[in-house]
Amino acid sequence: MIETNAVYVIVAREFKKFIREKSRLISTLARPLLWLFLIGGGMSRLVPGGQNVTYIQFIFPGILGMTILFSSIFSSISIIWDKEFGFMKEILVAPVSRFSVVVGKATSGMVLSTFQVMIVLCLFPFIGLRLDPLQIIGVILVSAILAFALASFGILLASFYESYESFSVIMNFIVMPMFFLSGAMYPVKLLPEVLKVVSKLNPLTYGVDALKNIVFPYETGRMSADFSLFIDLTVIVTLSVVFVLIAGKAFERKQ
Amino acid sequence: MSMIIVENLVKKFGSITAVDDVSFAVEEGAIFGFLGPNGAGKTTTINILCTLLSPTFGKAYINSYDCDRESSKVRNAIGIVFQDSSLDKDLTARENLMFHAYLYRVDKAERKQRIEDALRFVDLTDRADDLVKKFSGGMKRRLEVARGLIHRPKVLFLDEPTLGLDPQSRTNLWEFITTLPKLHKVTIFMTTHYMEEAEVCDKIAIIDKGKIIASGTPAELKKIVGGDVIYLKTNNNEEAMKDIRKLFDMEVSEKDGEIFLSAMKGDACIPALIREIGERVLSVRMQRPTLNDVFLKLTGKAIREQNGTGLDNIKAMVRSYRRRHDRD
């Protein structure tokens, strides 16, 4: 059973804090800008584009994916902060189910990530991309589903850690590899076999691939999407359900 | 009616028995004090009552709901002020209360009013829209008490509510806490390891190493130590002692140039003493037993001496340091 009052108030709290923290808002926008223009801009001199897609355009869906990955994982990792600073107890002794708390946290991750993606998305005209309104809506919808899946995944991670020292472990050993092996910076089909297998196990791969399918639907050849949109969507929708259920279970453990 | 009932409660963490066959009951509207040194099992007991932990054995009921099986009903009936602050320091006082009101489904029509009342009650109306991180330790505690009462609980748990506060804030907080049962029709369950603070309780249970070693009203507990002690300085101790033994048939001894005797009602005893042997007496003083003496008598140790493990000490230090200094 999901209590909507709990979900609502958990999301409202996160959103309020996010808006209030100007530095977090700025760093959110700085990271995609750096990757897109400094790395993308430089690499595009080195890497030839596809048929109709330049390298900097190619990584745009990946940069959106990165924005979602970082913000949703960061948002759900805040559970560790809440545990550390005691606020989690306020939530845990309230008459709401653990599952509602998990859904609330995952929804917070979804709302914050989608909000950030919408801002980063505004960069598309500056790299010569053309998107019609339907594509824009598609990008936002896929981002929301992906964010929900990743935020649930983050809650699952957070339920295994008690202190915020573990944050850098998660960042360096889980989040960064997830990003590099997602096809965000290079097409999965060009990777060596071993890495290709790992990429296919990475949930972010399908999210980034779905975004590629939407952003350049007509591209074929090496810069094109690796899977069909149908497969991508099936995987991320399934994963968001599976992750939120497992996270809910992991969170319910009572000593 | 008993608001809290605990029967043969046991909680084991691996090979450690934190709570060992504890039973007690708390009447509705009472202030119940759970006393003991750090690591005695106080917080573990609270966590079981608050549905955060399952007992290994035994039962706990609040408002006749089973704490383990009917946790959601129990949670509706309780408010908690934890040992460590559980406020969101990046939200304002009002936002913290608002969060709580939503979480406990306080009726929309009443939400605003209750929050205003709560803020006024703890004297924080002027600071309602300031971020909690700017609050002093005492203000945070008051805000937490206010928050714990927003949903009109039947029982309010206070786990070491005055830990890390300066003496003045402590006194203020106690005055405030003692008004709660009448004003809010709430039963109070508090823990402390400051014995002198427990004087305000209607009933006390003293816990040590997971077991309850004594319980009763503060006055009853003090009888364990044997009443008041009267100290007399006289011009001739030998003669005075002889007289007292002859006239009053009481035990009397001498120590450090003073003679002393214990009496159940020391204040009534002094005039009689003066009447009979007044010309010998140079000075009189009387000491009332404290709950510290009770603890000392029962365990052979003062409560502050045995502060658990070194790690617990460090934790407690960090905790009180944080409470005094944290601004993040």
Question: Outline of this structure?
Answer:
The complex is a heterodimer of chains A (255) and B (328). With 255 residues, chain A is mainly alpha-helical. In chain A, 74% of the residues lie in helices and 0% in strands.
In CATH terms, what is the architecture of the largest domain in chain B?
Answer: 3-Layer(aba) Sandwich
Strand line-up of the largest beta sheet of chain B: 6-7-8-3-9-10
CATH topology of the largest domain in chain B: Rossmann fold
Classify the secondary structure makeup of chain B into a structural class: alpha/beta
Tell me the quaternary state: heterodimer
Residue runs with pLDDT of under 50 for 5 or more positions of chain A? none
Number of strands of chain B: 14
Biggest interface found: A-B, 25 and 30 residues
Annotation keywords:
heterodimer; A: 255 residues; mainly alpha; B: 328 residues; alpha/beta; Rossmann fold; Alpha-Beta Plaits; 2 domains; 6-stranded mixed sheet; 39% helix
Structure, explained:
The complex is a heterodimer of chains A (255) and B (328). With 255 residues, chain A is mainly alpha-helical. Helix content of chain A is 74%, strand content 0%. Chain A has ten helices and no strands. Chain A has helices at residues 4-20, 22-46, 55-84, 87-92, 98-121, 133-158, 166-180, 193-201, 203-215, 229-252. The radius of gyration of chain A is 18 Å and the shape is globular. The relative contact order of chain A is 0.15. Chain B is an alpha/beta fold and 328 residues long. Chain B has two domains: 2-217, Rossmann fold (3-Layer(aba) Sandwich), CATH 3.40.50; 227-288, Alpha-Beta Plaits, CATH 3.30.70.260. In chain B, strands 6-7-8-3-9-10 form a six-stranded mixed sheet, with helices on both faces. A four-stranded antiparallel sheet of chain B has the order 2-1-4-5, covered by helices on one side. A four-stranded antiparallel sheet of chain B has the order 12-13-11-14, with helices on one face. In chain B, strand 7, helix 6 (167-184) and strand 8 (187-192) form a beta-alpha-beta unit. Chain B is elongated. The two termini of chain B are 44 Å apart. The model of chain B has no long low-confidence stretch (mean pLDDT 85). The A-B interface holds A 5-6, 8-9, 12-13, 16-17, 20-21, 85-97, 254-255 and B 13, 50-54, 72-73, 75-76, 78, 80, 82, 84-91, 95, 98-100, 102-105, 147.
